[in-house]
Amino acid sequence: CFVQGLVTSGYIILLSRVGERVAADMRKTLFASLLRQDVAFFDANKTGQLVNRLTADIQEFKSSFKLVISQGLRSITQTVGCFVSLYIISPKLTGLTVVVLPCLVGAGALFGSFLRKLSRLAQDQVAKATGVADEALGNVRTVKAFAMEERELQGLSSGARVFEYLALVPTIPLSGGGRIPSNSLTGRVDFMNISFSYPTRPGHQILTRFNLTLPPSKTVAIVGESGGGKSTVASLLERFYDPTSGIVMLDGLDIRTLDLSWLRGQVIGFINQEPVLFGSSIMDNIRFGKPEATDAEVINAAKQANAHLFITGFPDGYNTVVGERGATLSGGQKQRIAIARALIKNPCILVLDEATSALDAESERVVQEALDRATSGRTVLIIAHRLSTIQGADLICVMSNGCIVEVK
């Protein structure tokens, strides 16, 4: 009994370690698979549901893995032993068992299939509930401002899954394609006869026969009413989406033929209205734009972005932890760190999507000074409403109903 206990304990420990390793590898693989998906994929799936698959589903898989292996080996051993014993006692009865056993196995398989469907439905409900909770808690001020607490709680109740995402192949590959040598890259961008509808709203045309040229080292501003497609132009340049028809070209080459990681990582700097910072240090947040950057490069980028002065005013300087989504910083401070993050990779093209629209007058002035410095010598696309943001542009394009209607 003592030996059997030792063997059993060792077996359980081994299974636990194997299960932990398999679960960890699967979580890493699934996370990498999700990061490779297109922006359209994240438009159609809630963050909470995706996180649920990385946590609850992986945990469920780990438990099932250990159970199946341990019970499976035990059942196989017992079955073999029973057949041997039965054959010794009565060969005829053994033959009858061989006939009956497949029927029992078939019935068990059908019952198991039914249970798997029920389990999947239960997991779907958990994922939906997690998604609703994630949105409600992440936007709690909005929920409370509209007194929608009760509605979010009804949302909670109506609310192979891991392998489903592992098998997904992004329609826009992150790597592969050509690169333009840096010494010959001019930064000319051409939008040629572009039509576009978002994948989640295929019947709603955002851009219709849209044409625009961004000359090298010039600043082009796009203005127009909300919902007119201005930000969509920036998203197509970043290749968050591909146009339904038409071509976006960089230096005369279709951007679909260029390496996407190179395009986003080295060529285009993107600054939008709501800068997202990570819950780490200021140094790490700026270095996110160029992971191999030295401390000196980080500091230089911060100086260009008018951020060095306020950063050094903190007790921990560049090692100051900004909190989740940069909660400990003001809007203007977050925006300047986002500008530094974009500038540290020295992009040839700079995209500013409503970069100052959420700031007060004083913060806008400081940030605008940083942007004026950042745009010098680069091809710049500005999406804006405020006159102060676009008054220095070389070309101002008025957009309406998905196309350019006037150029100034």
From TrEMBL:
<dbReference type="GO" id="GO:0015421">
    <property type="term" value="F:ABC-type oligopeptide transporter activity"/>
</dbReference>
<keyword id="KW-0813">Transport</keyword>
<feature type="domain" description="ABC transporter">
    <location>
        <begin position="189"/>
        <end position="407"/>
    </location>
</feature>
<dbReference type="InterPro" id="IPR003439">
    <property type="entry name" value="ABC_transporter-like_ATP-bd"/>
</dbReference>
<keyword id="KW-1133">Transmembrane helix</keyword>
<dbReference type="GO" id="GO:0016887">
    <property type="term" value="F:ATP hydrolysis activity"/>
</dbReference>
<keyword id="KW-0547">Nucleotide-binding</keyword>
<dbReference type="GO" id="GO:0090374">
    <property type="term" value="P:oligopeptide export from mitochondrion"/>
</dbReference>
<dbReference type="InterPro" id="IPR027417">
    <property type="entry name" value="P-loop_NTPase"/>
</dbReference>
<dbReference type="GO" id="GO:0005743">
    <property type="term" value="C:mitochondrial inner membrane"/>
</dbReference>
<dbReference type="Pfam" id="PF00664">
    <property type="entry name" value="ABC_membrane"/>
</dbReference>
<keyword id="KW-0812">Transmembrane</keyword>
<protein>
    <recommendedName>
        <fullName>Mitochondrial potassium channel ATP-binding subunit</fullName>
    </recommendedName>
</protein>
<dbReference type="GO" id="GO:0005524">
    <property type="term" value="F:ATP binding"/>
</dbReference>
<dbReference type="InterPro" id="IPR011527">
    <property type="entry name" value="ABC1_TM_dom"/>
</dbReference>
<feature type="transmembrane region" description="Helical">
    <location>
        <begin position="95"/>
        <end position="115"/>
    </location>
</feature>
<keyword id="KW-0809">Transit peptide</keyword>
<keyword id="KW-0472">Membrane</keyword>
<dbReference type="InterPro" id="IPR017871">
    <property type="entry name" value="ABC_transporter-like_CS"/>
</dbReference>
<dbReference type="GO" id="GO:0006813">
    <property type="term" value="P:potassium ion transport"/>
</dbReference>
<dbReference type="Pfam" id="PF00005">
    <property type="entry name" value="ABC_tran"/>
</dbReference>
<keyword id="KW-0406">Ion transport</keyword>
<keyword id="KW-0630">Potassium</keyword>
<keyword id="KW-0633">Potassium transport</keyword>
<feature type="domain" description="ABC transmembrane type-1">
    <location>
        <begin position="1"/>
        <end position="154"/>
    </location>
</feature>
<dbReference type="InterPro" id="IPR039421">
    <property type="entry name" value="Type_1_exporter"/>
</dbReference>
<comment type="similarity">
    <text>Belongs to the ABC transporter superfamily. ABCB family. Multidrug resistance exporter (TC 3.A.1.201) subfamily.</text>
</comment>
<dbReference type="InterPro" id="IPR003593">
    <property type="entry name" value="AAA+_ATPase"/>
</dbReference>
<keyword id="KW-0999">Mitochondrion inner membrane</keyword>
<keyword id="KW-0496">Mitochondrion</keyword>
<keyword id="KW-0067">ATP-binding</keyword>
<dbReference type="InterPro" id="IPR036640">
    <property type="entry name" value="ABC1_TM_sf"/>
</dbReference>
